[in-house]
């Protein structure tokens, strides 16, 4: 086993100085590395990507150029080209088909979704300058500390509940999109169409409408006073403080009472945290439409060692914490998905 000298990426959303897991790991890896307390350390890359290739740390007995004491070492890709058998069953590829990244996140990253196989093939055929391969793009990550993220759309009934509960969200979308969602279609394809219509209406809302509705929501959220919630003056009421009749939300004759109550329990449990998150997103990105995304996407709060998978076509965003991510690469070594 050989130690690697891995490059660090500095982005504005990273954690500052020694608070960053990236900086801590880099210091453990390289005793000569000096952490600058005023710099943001966002990512540590482990692999052969040309924008940040790892080097192999020299060891005693290395008789190759670059192995002298104090040298950074040869690039990992050079070692694999010289010793392709190190790749085992992947020897024919001539390179690693994946890359590891450690991310230290202090500020929310943008929402994105990666295409499925059919869409990837179409995008690659029509825009090869932007899409470097025709493969789908699932991702996997493990939390290295307490971590927050958004991943995948909420269950249909939860989104309908939030449409009723938050007038600002209703104010962002079209009436036809509202009707499609609130009709609670039973057919799965009809639900997908309704969700697609809602999301398109949401992300294409006019800037002046976004400004008005986001401002109204932030004002209603109020100011946070402690870890338990928000100040009562002008803030949104919480679901654990009120009686909720499911038929008021889902209509008379709603037949899935047990499922509805299950969703309501989840919404009650995370209510403070979601409102807290929206307030924090407002501080980080004032006036941005993404502030309401936690009402549409599943909000994950994870502890160290827990993991999650992001399938193709699932919108997701990293919000806060430290994770290790594995990213699949194409045969030319270009990254499929950049955070």
Question: What does this molecule look like?
Answer:
The protein has 339 residues and is an alpha+beta fold. It folds into two domains: 4-146 and 304-328, Sandwich (Jelly Rolls), CATH 2.60.120.10; 155-295, Phosphomannose Isomerase, domain 2, CATH 1.10.441.10. The protein has helices at 21-29, 76-82, 117-126, 156-165, 167-172, 175-182, 188-203, 207-221, 246-250, 257-284; strands spanning 4-5, 8-9, 15-16, 40-41, 43-46, 55-56, 98-105, 139-143, 147-153, 224-226, 229-230, 297-302, 307-310, 316-328. Strands 2, 5, 7, 8, 9, 12, 13 and 14 form an eight-stranded antiparallel beta sheet that branches. Strands 1-6 form a two-stranded antiparallel ribbon. It has a two-stranded antiparallel ribbon with strand order 3-4. Helix 6 runs antiparallel to helix 7. The longest helix is centred in the C-terminal third of the chain and has 28 residues, at 257-284. Residues 66-70, 225-234 and 331-339 have low confidence and may be disordered. Belongs to the mannose-6-phosphate isomerase type 1 family. InterPro entries: Man6P_Isoase-1, Mannose-6-P_Isomerase, Pmannose_isomerase-type1_CS, PMI_typeI_cat, RmlC-like_jellyroll, RmlC_Cupin_sf. Its cofactor is Zn(2+).
SSE layout and pairing:
Blueprint: E1 4-5, E2 8-9, E3 15-16, H1 21-29, E4 40-41, E5 43-46, E6 55-56, H2 76-82, E7 98-105, H3 117-126, E8 139-143, E9 147-153, H4 156-165, H5 167-172, H6 175-182, H7 188-203, H8 207-221, E10 224-226, E11 229-230, H9 246-250, H10 257-284, E12 297-302, E13 307-310, E14 316-328
Antiparallel strand pairs: 1-6, 2-5, 3-4, 5-7, 7-14, 8-13, 8-14, 9-12, 9-14, 10-11
